[in-house]
């Protein structure tokens, strides 16, 4: 009796604490795929964006979907100004973020400030280019294929963002394996081949002319101090594809995983290594925190980036600090 009483009190106390902390921090948002949302979620921000996951060249849903949901956790900067990003050419909205109750619902979205964005032109090299040598996308890719021993094959191209916000965190980096299928142009038949595909992405005009991370081998030896788990698991149509478990070396270890109860990709979990460009720039929605989560409709997604190296964290904090004045609301 004694034990259960104190346990009961403790539980009551925790519940009170929990409800205070969540009500003071979180915002209630629409959570769905498509337009008519019946469900809610809670997060630091409401966002609306697109979802079009890929496995190599193949799209895993029939067409690009609109998703509305909640974004949270310490990798996302606090106090971001509400806005929508709209392509100036097509007038299509790519992304909206805001932090008041249900601010991505229906007409409330139209009231958000719109910022114009452009697709960028990238060099295109490889079979996927057909006979073009440039393409347009949200970001440019530079992919090194190490599958044939002693022969690096380089392909380049364009990528449209395929999952909510997380790919943007990798702009200005090279990673193995690629974070998403959209980040390379290879037809992967053996999942273990993903260990041999290095993908780099960048987001300025023709930035994939050369490798986006140009750090010298000598310098890389100093920067790449993290030994990370290296593994990919994908479940599509009830079928599991799983690589071996290995280790890789990078500046940061990363992990992205998602569950989606609808759609052809039910589960995806990728762990690997990433190294950022020394000169660095980071999308202003990101802070130097470790993790970000998105919940929306049938989709739960989480990404974390970690380094035990103080110098890597200092470099990251310097880059984030550069952004602060421009993107964060004065408080
Ligand atoms: C990849 O495979 C698909 C079908 O299996 C094919 O249609 C496509 O042309 C291939 N792409 C490349 C770049 O080889
Ligand atoms: C996805 O499901 C797995 C297994 O149930 C779970 O461990 C993981 O945390 C889930 N991921 C997300 C992002 O919710």
What do you see in this structure?
With 331 residues, this protein is mostly beta strands. The chain has an 18-stranded mixed beta sheet that branches. Strands 4-5 form a two-stranded antiparallel ribbon. Strands 10-11 form a two-stranded antiparallel sheet. The chain has three helices and 22 strands. It has one domain (28-326). The model is unreliable at 1-23 (pLDDT under 50). Helices cover 15% and strands 40% of the residues. One 2-acetamido-2-deoxy-beta-D-glucopyranose (NAG) is lined by residues 57, 127-128, 187. The site of one 2-acetamido-2-deoxy-beta-D-glucopyranose has 6 residues, from strand 19 and strand 22.
Q: What is the number of strand segments?
A: 22
How does the major sheet shape up?
A: 18 strands, mixed
Order of helices and strands: HEEEEEEEEEEEEEEEHEEEEEEEH
Bound molecules: 2-acetamido-2-deoxy-beta-D-glucopyranose
Q: Tell me the structural class.
A: mainly beta
Total individual domains: 1
Low-confidence stretches: 1-23
Helix content percent band: 10-25%
Q: Give the overall silhouette.
A: globular
- Kindly state the mean pLDDT as a whole number? 89
Number of helices: 3
What is the CA-CA span between the terminal residues? 50 Å
The rounded Rg comes to 21 Å
Q: What percentage of the residues does DSSP assign to strands (E)?
A: 35-45%
InterPro entries: Snake_toxin-like_sf
Signal peptide: 1-26
Keywords: Signal
């Amino acid at each position: 009796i004694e034990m259960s009483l104190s346990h009961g009190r403790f539980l009551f106390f925790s519940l009170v604490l929990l409800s205070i902390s969540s009500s003071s921090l979180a915002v209630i948002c629409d959570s769905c795929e498509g337009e008519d949302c019946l469900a809610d979620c809670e997060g630091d921000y409401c966002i609306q964006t697109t979802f079009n996951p890929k496995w190599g060249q193949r799209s895993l849903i029939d067409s690009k979907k609109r998703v509305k949901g909640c974004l949270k956790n310490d990798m996302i900067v606090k106090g971001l100004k509400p806005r929508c990003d709209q392509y100036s050419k097509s007038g299509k909205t790519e992304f909206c973020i805001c932090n008041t109750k249900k601010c991505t619902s229906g007409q409330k979205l139209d009231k958000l400030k719109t910022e114009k964005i452009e697709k960028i032109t990238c060099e295109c090299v490889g079979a996927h280019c057909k006979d073009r040598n440039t393409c347009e996308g949200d970001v440019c890719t530079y992919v090194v294929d190490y599958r044939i021993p002693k022969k690096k094959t380089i392909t380049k191209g364009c990528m449209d963002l395929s999952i909510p916000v997380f790919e943007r965190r990798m702009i200005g980096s090279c990673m193995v394996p690629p974070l998403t299928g959209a980040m390379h142009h290879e037809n992967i038949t053996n999942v273990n081949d993903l260990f041999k595909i290095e993908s780099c992405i960048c987001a300025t005009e023709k930035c994939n002319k050369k490798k986006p991370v140009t750090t010298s081998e000598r310098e890389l030896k100093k920067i790449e101090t993290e030994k990370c788990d290296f593994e990919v698991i994908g479940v599509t149509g009830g079928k599991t594809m799983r690589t071996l478990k290995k280790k890789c070396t990078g500046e940061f270890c990363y992990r992205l995983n998602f569950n989606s109860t609808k759609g052809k990709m039910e589960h995806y979990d990728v762990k690997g290594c990433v190294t950022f460009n020394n000169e660095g720039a980071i999308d202003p929605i990101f802070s130097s925190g470790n993790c970000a989560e998105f919940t929306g409709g049938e989709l739960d997604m989480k990404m974390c980036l970690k380094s035990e190296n103080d110098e890597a964290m200092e470099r990251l904090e310097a880059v984030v600090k550069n952004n602060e004045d421009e993107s964060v609301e004065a408080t």
